[in-house]
Fold these 3 entries.
Entry 1:
Amino acid sequence: MKLAFILPAIGKKKNRKYMKSWTMEPIMIAVLKRLTPDDIETVFYDDRIEAIDYDTDADIIALSVETHTAKRAYTIAERFKAKGKRIVMGGYHVTTVPEDARSHADILVLGNAESVWEDMLRDVETGNYKNEYAGDVCCDYGQPDRSIYADKRKKYLPLGLVEIGRGCHYNCEFCSVSSYYKRAYAHRSIAAIVQEIKENPHKVYFFVDDSIFSDKEFAKALFIEVTKLHIHWVTQITLDIARDEELLSLMAASGCKVILIGFESIDPQNLKQMNKEWSIKVGERDALVERIHNAGISIYASFVFGFDYDNEESFKNCLEFSRRHQFFVAAYNHLLPFPGTATHERLCREGRMIYENWWLSREYTYGSIPYHSKLVTAEELGLLCKKYKKAFFCFSSIFTRYKTLKKRTNVTYVRFAYWVTNLMLHWEVNKRFGIPLGENLDEKKR
Ligand code: SF4
């Protein structure tokens, strides 16, 4: 039996290249390859960087589906179905809205695949398979098998992706991680993580977790072991890491250089609405940010606009806050109601969705707003995101922030990464708007 893994792309503008910043190493495919028995032949097509061979002799087509790639995934599935192939789909989107994917697939893998992947493949071999397999929350897969994309690695961003755990103990209203894992958290063994880092040498690693310290004692033990590896790494984390000074200093000592913090908003009313008021106590935000900077860790600050108390003042306040702290990078994105989240349910209930299933809509494009925000129109909200991104990524801002960065760190790689990231995001501000989902991906130009 032969299995073709396919990672569908988001979409691209006509005759334009695919967004470079969207081409990270596809670690989930390496995990699935590890779970696949050796006697099953495999091939992998990464739709983001190469053409799919629709004439492949594979018997099964396995698609990993996210909300932004759902439309493309369904198109690919239909083409293969017409050739009589078995279609398997899994991933966050399929798990959250299985009804969306059901008509395009023979088999859905819901939840984490680890506990059911091999059984599913064996059932397909015998022809006696189920239409749905439900996996438990688990990330016990040993070592991802990166040989599946060894020949394509040069085309990915130069970051070694490593997964520490899955899930998050918080419950933010808009968050698909929270709706998917229901506040559960599972992590890999420290031995498996350390071995993976040793076997997969990179200049810098991205620990792809959403909340790396959901289990504090585990995080401390992990940081102590990672310190011995003398690596540099980046991750996503919540601001309250800085409340625990021991944890913060262990994290810094272990080589953490940049963290993405989802501030989302600095308006207390918005934070309350999104169920994230735990993230900050009055007057605490600036002190926590400074504590992180003083530990030698730079911050990628992420803000989301379009909550019910947002207007242009909110953007101005965030820009002022970003400049005050001279962030490494800042993102000014709009709220996107992902299916299965409480935000999507609320906006549907309130009759505010412009495109309820925006991920399938022909009219919706990446960067536009699929719902009615309260204090500004959807169109104004999109324009404000663009305007304030431009303000943050203008050349004078990039140079000014670099002067501060030089005082904060003497690590050459961090300084280099600063320029690469800021210049890439500077040039991508306009390019990121108006990308049609699932379109123009069969063009030769990528
Ligand atoms: S802290 Fe982050 S990962 Fe956790 S629920 Fe909130 S947004 Fe999601």
Entry 2:
Amino acid sequence: MFKNILCAVDGSKHALRAAEVASDLAEKYGADLTFLTVSKELKVTEEVKRFMQVEHLTGSPQYILDEMTDRVLDEARDKAKKHGIAKPKTEVKTGHPARAIVAYAERTGVDLIVLGSRGMGDIEGLLLGSVSHKVSSMAKCTCITVK
Ligand SMILES: Nc1ncnc2c1ncn2[C@@H]1O[C@H](COP(=O)(O)OP(=O)(O)OP(=O)(O)O)[C@@H](O)[C@H]1O
Ligand SMILES: [Mg+2]
């Protein structure tokens, strides 16, 4: 049924659950699996500063952002490994997350997009984040929103 699965990850626990579901489906369908994260434009945000403090990191902001991105993809890769997918594809894009996810899916013939219902945003009580909402509205293929 599904041949080319795209899972969008942003480092949130919701996205990790999405990675779990995407890996399970990729295993069951024998599909290709890609993890995509859309990283921020270079800007030293509070999030970056906190990450640097917690990890005792010194270095350029670009280096720190790259480390954060690597970590997001590593966590997703671990989920795939547990489902016997040793080498899922990983991609990093910058820009508007929803547009970048949909554009990538269309360009590469993705037939299923898997996302978390929420992400790193912290607006309490929100049931569906804006990226989830926009991707499922704009995408031409099937989308699964993992709760
Ligand atoms: N930058 C991103 N790169 C890749 N995937 C993303 C990105 N941001 C969100 N996602 C995907 O979308 C899902 C839902 O996140 P979303 O950003 O919509 O919710 P939120 O952060 O709670 O709300 P909002 O960002 O609207 O304040 C995530 O679990 C993840 O799968
Ligand atoms: Mg978000």
Entry 3:
Amino acid sequence: MQEWFLTIYVKYGWLFSFADEFGDEPGFLDTPETKVTYTWLIITAAFAAIGFIIYRVVDLMQYLHVRNAKRPEDLESINDEIFAKKLKTKKGRWWKRFLGQSVSFGFQFGYIYGGMPLIVMVAHQYVSYSVIYVILMVIGWIINMTLSKIFSLWTPALPVQYHTPGKTWQSGLMIWQAWGMISWAGPVYFLATQGPSGWMGSVAFIWISQIIQLFVFIRHMKGKVVPYLEYEGLSDTFKENLKTYLASQGIKDSEVGVLRNSKMGPNAFATGLFGYRQIALTEELVRGYKDPSNPDFILKLDDDALEAVVSHEVGHIRGYHVLKSVCLGAFISSMTTVLVFYGFSKGGFFSPDYFNFDKATSAQIFSFFGQSMLNLMFMYPLTFLMISFTQRNEYNADTHLLETNGCKNGKAFFHQIRHIAPVANHAMWDRLNSTHPAPQVREERMKKWEDEHCS
Ligand SMILES: [Zn+2]
């Protein structure tokens, strides 16, 4: 153990500590209790920091890569002027993201390792632990709401992918964040009433709540889409061809539709819970999408390419990708919960005073802290795991497209999307951050396949 680091940490940590016995007398670093305390603090903090540092190093590689980017010559509607403009926007977004993620991590790190013990200590002079717990939850809710536009602070639960454009204080987002807090507090109830063995009730809660969220999401989608056969903006040839294709795939006509006024840009997605499923194309994708930063370009797919997009979504449905993602998310949350129960409950592996809390701190507050800390520690490793998982699903959905409808101009969507985002990312950055394989890689794969299989 680095003695100087321990000294600094103890001196700083002492400010927030209840362990008056540390004092300042020589030799206090040698007591077994102190060593255990600060060893755990340093191990968990270092673990949390490693993922963060790796991601920032790759961010810097991305910056150098983008700075030296050259205009791709195969994009017909991108001239030097437009490319320079897009490059500038991308650099601006890089800075915003880099600073946002650094501030977010620093803020969480400071709050979890320093702020929370301090808040609990000060507040306990005036109110009971159960009141403090409620206050911490409300603070968490307000911080999540206020900062959600700038960066994502820790979320209490791993939600089904959810994206909201527009205002911060809108009812949907407020309910969503409140639901997140409840799905955190609910499990803790089992911890407080049943001790470590309560993890079973908590894990059941996670799985049920995840399945309900998915079910509600699918039902919501089904209510919003117009079935493709009834949608006026699609040609009869397209409808006929798609009908034949869907029949061959065992997908009902009512399960593919167009999403009006999605505000999601040109996009398509699939969602499903076993036989309850929905594929949606946004209206912007079907009707054509005008690139706001390039007056010379409109993204518009021909009938064949649009059918290829649907084939990719069918690949997600047939591979049960949404269900698998939800299960992976729920499994990770379950493992975290088991860790929290055995680590941070009364009689658990960790003691509150290892982390500068009073020994008497309530199980709710200490588990709240434990879960925050585990979220911070595993934030980047889990991001990497989930990204790897979704990239694999996307690759497999492309494989399904090629194997079932490979001669239908599947490359067109990627070629056109590259006009909207013509600056390629560093390959390593894509590997760590992108939910999909890079568009130029997907376009290249489809082109090669067409050359080999289609005449
Ligand atoms: Zn996909």
